[in-house]
Amino acid sequence: MNNITKPNLIFKDDLLTGENIDRLTRKLKDLGDIFNDKAAFAQMDGETVVYDVESSFPVAHGTEGGLFYGITYIHPGKVGQEYFMTKGHFHEIRNRGEYYCTLEGEGMLLLMDENGNTRAEKMIPGSIHYIPGNTAHRTANVGEQILSFSAFWPSDAGHDYGTISEKGFSEILIEQEGQPVLVPNIKQ
Questions:
Q1: CB 156 within 8 A of CB 146
Q2: Parallel, antiparallel, or unpaired: how do β-strands 135-141 and 67-74 relate?
Q3: Shortest CA distance to 41 belongs to which of 27, 53, 55?
Q4: The Glucose-6-phosphate isomerase prokaryote domain covers which part of the protein (predicted)?
Q5: Looking at the chain, which terminus has fewer C-beta neighbours within 10 angstroms, N or C?
Q6: Cβ neighbour number for residue 95 with a 10 Å cutoff
Q7: Longest CA–CA separation in the chain, Å
Q8: Residue 185 and residue 78: Cα distance in Å, rounded?
Q9: Closest CA to 135 of 166, 91, 167
Q10: Model confidence over 6-18: pLDDT tens digits?
């Protein structure tokens, strides 16, 4: 009897294939609540793709003890001085952690605890980032090419986008003199 099976997922040529793959595209028009420069945002084409996500859900959402896997591709660009970035979220079950592994490009992982303390970690190919529980997180592309990273998170974690949509992070990442810099969020 042969107990050797093919892999569940294959990542090749910047494409994730396998069973139970979900694909999501976020365009600028979907992200109006995350950028502070509303004048610059209004001047941009809402159909501009900011990021794409490919995810594998091998178990049902909410399954305790399961894991999900995904790859995010953030395009280069800015709204005013703010870099293109993901929506950002806490997990619904706040104590759930997550791992990010940078595949290509250059970016920043923004992390904010529940007291509003924000920090950033540089993302470069091969860097691995642990996101502890009770921590909001989002990523920004600070380079000239697509930033891609893989993520591993508990299938029961859920996503709380609403808190970040309403309040934002306490600091935002902008470009100043050609460098990414964290500055206080005037939306707070």
A1: no
A2: unpaired
A3: 27
A4: 26-179
A5: N
A6: 11
A7: 66
A8: 16
A9: 91
A10: 888 988 888 888 8
CA distances 99 to 59, 109, 122, 141, Å, are 18, 11, 14, 18
Q: How many CB atoms lie within 10 A of CB 4?
A: 4
Mean pLDDT of 26-36: 95
CA dihedral 6, 64, 154, 62 (to 10 degrees): 100
The percent of residues above 90 in pLDDT, for the chain, comes to 88
133 neighbors 75 (Cβ within 8 angstroms):
no
Average pLDDT value for residue range 38-59:
96
pTM: 0.94
Cβ atoms of 72 and 138 within 8 Å: the answer is: no
Tokens in use for 4?
A: 């050797």
With a CB cutoff of 8 Å and minimum separation 6, the contacts of 13 are none
Amino acid at 68: F
- Taking each continuous run of H as one helix and of E as one strand, the counts in the chain are 2, 15
Helices (H), the chain: 38-42, 162-167
- Using left for φ > 0, alpha for ψ between -120 and 50, and beta otherwise, residue 14 falls in left
